[in-house]
Protein: Kinase
Amino acid sequence: MKLSPLENQVGGHHGVLSMGEENEIIVKPCLPQELRFYEEAVLHPDFQVWMPSYYGTLTLTRELPQQLQGNQENGQPAGGSEVPVPTVKALNGFLLADLMAPEFAPTLTPEAAQSADISKDENDAECICLENISHGFQKACLLDLKLGTQLFDEDASEDKKARLGVVSANTTSGKLGMRLTGFHVYDCEKGEFTKYSKDYGKSLTEDTVLDGFRAFFSAKLGPQRMRLVIERFVNDLADFLEMIETQEVRMRSSSLLMMYEGDPDAFDEGYLTEQEKIAEVVTKAKVELEKGTASISIDKDGDRVMIGNNSSNKDGDDEDDDDEDDDDEDDEDEELRQKVTDMRLIDFGHSTWTPGKGPDEGVVLGVKNALKLLEKLLEEDYPHEEEE
Structure:
């Protein structure tokens, strides 16, 4: 398990790291409020499914252990690394050297690694370990869509309230309840990403924000693929809206992270894998229906198939079969790596659960407007008749 700087960050604060053989885990500095929000999310399962998976915490310290002090020059670790040294709080069982990517790790002997002892002090950063939701994309096009009309905490200083109040009033956050914070789009012809900064997002108005979405959906995938991408986000936003209207929560400066695959070949690979998995699920459902051990339902748009188990399993005779099915599902999840689209809610440093106070109307407004804009983009740029 190695720590490296996160490469594809488009919004939020700097200092986010990635960890794992394929950078599948994000290590993100957090405030106690955000950690508490993640830990309490288990009590809100409908909300939690839209969040990145939460794995635990790490403590990152700026102080090197005594064994490494000799490798420093001018106060910097060997190699000029500025990556903080991790100590393990929840994800235990790893040596110091195991957690550092080689190009960022200070030089130390195996003996020093075994005995290195780093104690936490007031300058250490508590970090949460989260699912890297961009994992599974080859060339992820990412958009950080900040939600809500109010961007500051109730307990923020008056100066901060005034400053963020001006930001909201002078951007689409104030009237639309959402803002394109930053995004990047892959150009498969040039083999590079085009990046759009926070300043670009702040420059958009009610009249031009649709052009911002149009720029985000500008990867050269062809009209059929791109319409599929936008349709999926329309469906996701509709489902998310239905959920968020029922949640008693206040989110300040939280974002929806929207991602789609920007490489046409990888896109097709992911889509084909999805269709194959759907076919397998439907085939399995038909068998279970014929045996009378399952029920099946399809949502009103035909987009989702729900399979329920009718077997009571009172005698426990089928437990071994269930275990085998679970193993099969784990294998399928392992194989299904290439994604086509994904959308998650992120950044909860200023979010709180507020029972009895109703939904966050500023966030609801933002989701409604984002949904309307994508529906308009579909209608104007990708009408169905053009597919033929």
